[in-house]
Design brief:
Distance between the termini: 27 Å
Mean pLDDT: 87
Strand order of the largest sheet: 1-2-3
Strand content: 15-25%
Largest sheet: 3 strands, parallel
Oligomer: single chain
Shape: globular
Low-confidence stretches: none
Length: about 80
Amino acid sequence: MAQRFSGKVVIITGASRPEGIGAAAAQRFADEGASVAITARGAAGLEAIAGRIRDRGGKARAFPADLEGTYIKEEMDQA
């Protein structure tokens, strides 16, 4: 697969459901070379998605959070 996003960071929100569109998008970006930062309120599902991406050779970090707050932007900026 082409590495169109190599060297890029992609942030995906709402990626905690294994069969959801957020998880699928995160996996696809990772497959194409992006480092993926995923966030959602469901911490357990979120870490499972990040682990699955890493198991397939991708780069992924999970940031469980409710995006109504502003602290998550600061935390992700430092990652």
